[in-house]
Amino acid sequence: MWRGFAAALLVCSTAWPLDLNRAHVRRDGQGRAAEVLVSEIQRRTGIALAQDGQGTGIDLRVSSRIPHDGFTIESNSARVLVEGGSARGLLFGVGRLLRELNLAPARIELVHDLHLSSAPKYLLRGHQLGYRPKTNSYDGWTVAMWDQYIRELALWGTNAIELMPPRTDDDRDSPHFPLPPMRMMIEMSRIVASYGLDVWIWYPALDADYTDPATVDFALNEWAEVFRKLPRVDAVMTPGGDPGRTRPRTLLALLKRQTENLHKYHPQATMWVSAQSFSQEWLDEFFELLREEPAWLAGVVYGPETRIPLAEFRRRVPKRYPIRNYPDITHTTHAQFVVPDWDPAFALTSGREPINPRPEAMATIFQLQGRDTIGAITYSEGCNDDVNKFVWSALGWDPNRKPADIAGEYARFFFGGPRAQVYAEGLLGLEKNWRGPLADNPQIERTLSLFERATDAERKNWRLQMAIYRANYDAYVKQRLVAERDGERRALNALQRGELDEAERELRPSAVAPELRARVFALAEDLYQSARMQLSVEKYKAIGRERGATLDGIDSDLNNRGWLLERIAKIRKLAPSQREDAIRAVLHWTDPGPGGFYDDLGDPRNQPHLVRGPVADDPPHFSSAFTGVVRRPWEYPAWRLSWITEAETMFDAPLEMRYSGLSPTARYRLRIIYGGESGATRIQRLGANGNVELHPFQRIERRTDPVEFDIPATATAGSALELVWARQPGLPGAGRGNQVAEVWLIRVTQ
């Protein structure tokens, strides 16, 4: 930390703006700062500034009086002086100067005097950049594209980039690779080193049994070959899980040997480890091993799927070990930080990895997690989270920055021009698009309007293309949602009249906003050409629909079409005397009857009895319930929407519902649709009022069949009822277990 060297900016009104069109760039020191300054100005203005020479100039130099990553900028009517505490600090200073300059075609101006001193608050400010097929874009990037992207991150104060080895939990090849993975890893290491940034490697321990000497020998040789080929390595991080599954004692024994391996080629490099996906038993063992304070271990990483909050994690890790944060900034569902109460229409269409600028959410998460760490290297799966990366870099430098200010600086730096502030508002608007029920959200149209007047030249910018794509996509989904709800309403009216043919006709998909849809497809093509974004499996060979292939979900059903058509088909097979009851069951699916209650727990508008908990202060949901969604909803075309979404809790937190105002003399029955994901972790227990067990711990198999339980009269004698679902405690994995979709509390007697 740099004490007493706070940022300060003074503005004078005389002799400004300073014309730098003919300025000379003069440097005193090593590194790429001068080259970067000249080339970035030329890209934006067309002016190639001369290097060295007399007259008005921009002087760059390294000074030992300034902390390593810090810089100062001083200006007067004759020159601008940028000083850095190192070649890297000087580069950070150049980045700040570029963000202060007014750059336009054939114009370079400093619009006000600068007297600025700045240094970062956090030691570590980095991002993971994975060249592998699982990403939504990166596997198509060339060396030149990587150089430019890493440079831009550096200009915002990023000081570390995390790479991935050739073998991960991903496919070994991609149709988009311009180079084989090992060759690209070497190139990326060289690029990162050329900017003076630290090179980290995310290196999972993937093999099945590291108690087997032959497996250990294989791993030592495989990792050594990677270490040997890379020009620079500063640190290696091995996740405890996601992927990999090795008991902590065995994992740390392997990493001790891998540290010796690493030091043969990079003597100063350090080894780090995370506790991701550990069971409670393994986590306790992990902390017990850390208490022995192995000297070879440099620090510990807090990442997704860690089963305790960061503050508790910090308390249990010995003080000698710094903690690096590893936040998931790239996913929307099935993630460390889900989009709160995301409208199911977005989950059904956009999936888990869409273009997702979330500056305000990222700032909140940063503030809640920052104080217990030395900083972060974020977890990313592609350029869909580009805005979020720059928010984390900016906050890592100065945690007091406001999200709107960062968005404005991002727009000025990457878009420029007179409409930069409008586009900044648009980026903030995209985050607001995802708040609350989609059909009632007027922000959708406002956000789209902010991007509609972009010029042809501006539309060549891939970052702006991403924002425009999302704005159009959201608007199209809203129009489809409104139309499909209307169609379902008409179908139910026809069904009520017994007109099965008419009900089916009303459920047929119809064309909605074809021009808007065509615009989305055209923008998807633009993004493939400009940034190699793979927004479709079929058209652009994305690795999977949930990996950013939002184009493939654009026409997903947004009503109960599949479920209704299946029910209508069954009704047709019934005798006429049986049809009326079957139709009534469809029409009154959510009706709990007189004196009863119904909760659609996947719909925030219809879950009055759910105990939500401290949602605003708990983005990872360690102690609060949240709205979840089936991971691949398109695999369940005949499910009701109310089965695809559910209320969830994480790890061992209970899921609770509370009822009041019940009749103390009536008897009640509980009906449940569990919905949600299948798998070994769906082992749940249901209790009532603390001492009544409605069902013991059991695997949830009948996910869409109602299960019913009679509530003992003693449980409701006090006119209240508390239901508590508990997951089998201590399980490993992602932490998801308590998932409940629909609940009816039915009054069966007076």
Q: How much helicity do the residues have? A: 25-40%
Strand fraction equals: 15-25%
Strand pairing plus helix content: what structural class?
Answer: alpha/beta
Strand tally, please?
28
What value does the average pLDDT take? 94
Layout: helices, strands, pairs:
Layout: E1 18-19, E2 24-28, H1 33-45, E3 50-51, E4 57-62, E5 71-75, E6 79-84, H2 87-100, E7 102-104, E8 107-110, E9 115-118, E10 124-128, H3 143-155, E11 160-163, H4 181-194, E12 198-202, H5 213-229, E13 235-238, H6 248-263, E14 270-274, H7 280-290, E15 297-302, H8 310-316, E16 323-325, H9 344-350, H10 359-369, E17 375-378, H11 386-397, H12 403-414, H13 420-433, H14 443-451, H15 462-496, H16 500-507, H17 514-531, H18 537-540, H19 561-572, H20 576-587, E18 597-600, E19 626-629, H21 641-644, E20 645-650, E21 655-660, E22 668-673, E23 683-688, E24 692-699, E25 707-711, H22 713-716, E26 720-727, E27 736-740, E28 742-747
Parallel strand pairs: 2-3, 2-4, 4-6, 10-11, 10-17, 11-12, 12-13, 13-14, 14-15, 15-16
Antiparallel strand pairs: 1-8, 5-6, 5-9, 7-8, 18-28, 19-20, 20-27, 21-26, 22-25, 22-28, 23-24, 23-26
Helix pairs in contact: 1-2, 3-4, 5-6, 10-11, 10-12, 11-12, 12-13, 13-14, 13-15, 14-15, 15-16, 15-17, 16-19, 19-20
